[in-house]
Prior knowledge:
Strand content: over 45%
Shape: globular
Number of domains: 1
Number of strands: 11
Number of helices: 1
Distance between the termini: 11 Å
Radius of gyration: 17 Å
Amino acid sequence: MATYKIDASHSDILFKVKHLMITTVTGHFKSFDATLTANADDFSDAEVTFTADINSVETKSEQRDTHLKSDDFFNAEKFPELKFVSTSFSKDGNGYNLKGNLTIRDITKPIELHADYNGTMVDPWGQTKVGFEAEGVIKRKEFGLGWDAVTEAGGIVVSDDVKLQLNIQFVKQ
């Protein structure tokens, strides 16, 4: 069994949310950890665990970041960690289908991500690295991120759909 740890300096954990339904706001987590284990060379039996520190959320707006950490959204004080544990990682023709359980706040729901394997490379220091990109969509309200506001004209301020984009490099241990 091969074990890989995330190379945080070469990885991004991003989320995108529509604001006023006319623009997209991008955020990311600065502090996170992940492990991938697999027996198969093609990663078809891979198991993935991932955690992110909610207090590390960043969206280029200190006021918005503070709001995201409040009970309106993540409630970082009570629920300081987001967690994902895979249940399957299978080839689907154009890449992989990554299924697992995502926990935000105290709510765990199954999610599905499409993942692309970008290859394996040995870096100049002799470390074996593998790269993946994964994406999917979750409904934030299903995870207790239920804050809502409506504009004077009746428009939605923040969409329920949250796009996830993961650009991950793992280092073989």
